[in-house]
Amino acid sequence: MNKSVLVFLLLLLSMSACKSKRKLSADGVGTDSALLASADQRFQQLLLHDFMLTELSMNGGITVDMNDQRLSSPMSLKMQKDQQIWISVKPMLGIEAFRVLIRPDSIFVVDRLNKQYLQKPFAWLSEMAKAPFTYATLQDLLLNNVGFLTRGNRLVSQERQLQLSLDGLRYLLQPDATGNKLKGLEVIRPDQKLRVDFIELVNFEGKQLPKSLKLIIEGKESGTIDINFSKFAVENGQTYPFSIPSSYTRID
Fold first, then answer.
1. Looking at the domain assignment, is residue 95 inside a domain?
2. pLDDT computed for residue 24 by the predictor
3. Which parts of the chain sit beneath pLDDT 70?
4. What is the pLDDT of residues 224-237, one digit of tens each?
């Protein structure tokens, strides 16, 4: 199976899964009440502008450059809140190469080019990233939402950055000039640096959604992932067709 799609999914999830080792600077130890109040206020402003959905569909394209491998393809993505994320990748003349279904408890990837499929519990992704995370994390990151961090401890607010911790992980957030949405999110660990830049936002249903985002990975696995959406639509009652032909071979 071409691993580019799997790399794409793993890296999206790893945005929140990498354990950060960065220490707070001496003037921001997270114990000053004024700093904590500022951090909480800034987070609440971000949370207020989260995009709430029942169902959403998005069309666009993805380009993955990872370890001398490149995949550039149109794709369609559908989301049903807290239930499923459906992705179709069609790199050649509208012919589908991959179909992906992600649920809170499982993940499926069908490789139509090689007649293979992958089926794993969602916990497998957590094991691969060696850190805890949930389906809600992925759902929110795709929408530039911060709701998955609601339980997090607001550590410090310094200049343009906001630091939070959750379940032993540390998040470095960069709000945009309005303070309403994220401009960037960064996670650092000793052997890997990962950043996602929300390059362009678009107004939709009274909120802002990421039209263009870029993932930059530096470390043992290095490369970039560019995602551009050209169309958003609320499609309540939309279908999520997914089946695995009996002739396909299951791989690990």
1. yes
2. 34
3. 1-36, 126, 128-132, 168, 187-193, 221
4. 889 999 999 987 88
- In CATH, what number is assigned to the domain containing residue 121? 2.50.20.10
Residue 249 lies in a domain: no
How far apart (Å, rounded) are the C-alpha atoms in residues 66 and 81?
30
Range of the domain at 38: 4-244
pLDDT for residue 150: 86
Residue 251 lies in a domain: no
Instruction: Give the chain's domain count.
Output: 1
Q: Given this model, what pLDDT does residue 65 score?
A: 85
Query: Which DSSP string do the residues of the chain spell out, in sequence order?
Result: --THHHHHHHHHHHTTTSPP-PPPPTT--S--HHHHHHHHHHHHHHHHTPPP-SEEEEEEEEEEEETTEEEEEEEEEEEETTTEEEEEE--BTTB--EEEEEETTEEEEEETTTTEEEEEETHHHHHHHTS---HHHHHHHHTT--GGGTTSEEEEEETTEEEEEETTEEEEEEE-TTSSSEEEEEEEETTEEEEEEEEEEEEETTEEEEEEEEEEEEESS-EEEEEEEEEEE--TT--------TTSEEE-
Q: What is the pLDDT of residue 39?
A: 81
Residue 89 within a domain:
yes
